[in-house]
Amino acid sequence: MHGVVRDRLEEVLRSKDQVTGMKEVDSHLESCAECARETAALREQSRMVRQLRADVDPPPGFYARVLQRIEERAARSIWAVFLYTPFGKRLAYASLALALVFSGYVIGMEAQDGHMMAGFGASVVESPSASPADAPVHGNETDRRDAVLVNFVNYESGN
Hints:
This protein is mostly helical. It is built from 9 helices and no strands. The model is unreliable at about 120-125 (pLDDT under 50).
């Protein structure tokens, strides 16, 4: 099917007659047998689908019964307390705030220790009271193992 017909296919299929009222499309359909054949087949399929459509309205009260069943099932659920009440919304907001505060604390402590930045090759800003033993260790596996052992030996409890 050519672009002239394809771009306006919905309008062509919506028209009741073979003539669509669009000069460009009508002249193309008269001159192009392939497009005329495809358009006729699509119109026939559209007609058959329209015949299958049931124009029956649901019985009175159908939508009310559906909504009533949805509400009954939602009320029986344990999650209804958390999802449909102000308590649930407050609990969700409090949990989110707690998660943000906790993640901020963890990120801040990791950045302060310098361990978080050491893996990225960034320079670590040390505090004036930090000793050289507190700096992250770079190098091969043996150097890192030795640094861990030295830290264990030099560890002093704050108690």
